[in-house]
Amino acid sequence: MATKMKELDAMKPVMTDLKGQTLVCLRTLTEENPASLATYIKLGGYSALKRIVTEKTKATDIITEVKDSVLRGRGGAGFPTGLKWSFMPRYFDGTKYLVCNTDEGEPGTFKDRDIIRYNPHQLIEGMAIAAYTLGAHVGYNYIHGEIWQDYETFEAALHEAKAAGYLGENLFGTNFCFNLYAVHGYGAYICGEETALIESIEGKKGQPRFKPPFPASYGVFGKPTNVNNTESYASIPWIMQHGGAAFAELGVPNSGGTKLFSVSGHVEKPGNYEVKMGMPFSELLEMVGGVWKGRKLKAVIPGGPSTAVLPAATIMAATMDYDGLSKARSSLGAGSLIVMDETTCMVKALHRLSYFFYEESCGQCTPCREGTGWVYRIITRIVNGQGKMEDLDLLTDVSNNISGRTICALGEAAATPVLSFIKHFRPEFEYYIQHGKSMVESQ
Amino acid sequence: MLSTQAIEKIDYELTKYPADQRQAAVMSALRIVQTERGWLSKDSISEVAQYLGMPEIAALEVASFYNMYDLSPVGKYKITVCTNISCMLRDSDEIVSHLQTKLGVGFNEVTADGKFCLKEGECMGACGGAPLMTVNNHAMHEFLTPEKVDEILEALK
Ligand SMILES: Cc1cc2nc3c(=O)[nH]c(=O)nc-3n(C[C@H](O)[C@H](O)[C@H](O)COP(=O)(O)O)c2cc1C
Ligand code: SF4
Ligand code: FES
Fold it and tell me: What is the ipTM, given to two decimal places?
């Protein structure tokens, strides 16, 4: 292990300037050794779990607190976490499971990685509280395969927590037991979809299941399972320590708490920034050092590629919360901001994105499998200078025909960039088709 | 034959699942065997399937579904560069062409000396450190520049 840690030290971490941030999920970042158990305990870590377990707090009271916090699922869909928890069957004869989704791999999304490598214990505590509340005794954290070193960091933290009595059997001398394990993906974006992830945990191809049944009734090994995103669980200890109302107050109505924003692309200081929900985009852009090389902002994908791209003027007027971005006709998604400067060719940007969805479609629904391939081939044709004007309508048509006709939401996710890029940047696509080359690169 | 070390590691993974769910460990088991042998031959996959008591075809399906498993030899060092949008915006294409020139291979090719193989990867969930690449799946190198790539290659010789 010692040599391993050494290798890790040699890596340059994506640490950001903490000024202006409000640290909840990444609260250990103010300390020297953020990932260590000692650091977490020094900051009050595991106290909420201990209190809840020893005082035998009623599950319904915890769920009420989580509902009051207005915490919404941070994995992209924004579903209220307290409400989700209330769907788990209270009484079940057998094992119930808890699953954490750390499989982020949608371009621009890299927030959960910082939670597992800089503050793993807060995630562990959050999952333990959830397990207590939902009556689950076994949990899995499914981690994206490519961030292997962070998987190892997290697994080391699990052993540390177990040795210290925060995981395992009869915790704090009560009859509460919770065993938590790290498991990993190995290169399939679709496993971020919760039912594909469950299939993958079971040792199968990651192909989404039809819903219903939902995981709450038929999840891991066919048992009731609660799936949440890493950031969702990591918010729980703070909520149970300070109260749901306090968490809600950090944010704005309908968007409680803080949010980790992953900022990538053309900015001076890419990285994760944890700020209060409702921060104006313009302020966030300033925090990340602005657009790089003193260039002008052209467009931003605010929540990951499955959310609609917004032109500079629209995003500059928006606030970073669920309602703020839906008013701007996009969505918060997972909070993954991809920033593009004036030199970006939108046709080429969409080309890359369409390849991603084509490559990552699991292939079991015809509209998604065929549609994503078709879209990619049409855009490739345009990029190669062989596009026709009708292609733009065809792209819109094909995309509209994927949406809503598939087992999982990847189909819709693949359609969104196509529709929004063409809607906002149509002249650039037309220019490319007419001249056989990029408008931006010809300037 | 799976090595004793591999079996030890697989047995550790098996402790994470109910006793009647050995197949659940297949992702780890394939990873462990691939790390040891460099890539996954049909025989390697069969051995894993046998050890876990699952149908060979099911193990093969898993091995071919997930991108990080290699079903053909990838040389001593497999270099995977992410070229997706966040990385593209940070000039990952420049890193790719630098690697291609330097190694004299295109994507999915192995150098003549069997040392390096270059692969194009999809988003690795680490876009804040773009442009980036992994070496043999498990070592990630971020904030790449052509100079930094040279240093990394040098260290791998
Ligand atoms: C194609 C696809 C990919 C997804 N990827 C992720 C992911 O990487 N991480 C994640 O937490 N949720 C992802 N989701 C959403 C999950 O299915 C699920 O809603 C989420 O993990 C629930 O947690 P939450 O309620 O805390 O957000 C994805 C969904 C789809 C359709
Ligand atoms: S929509 Fe696409 S990714 Fe989702 S299940 Fe269907 S084919 Fe697979
Ligand atoms: S786009 Fe390259 S790591 Fe995410």
Answer: 0.98
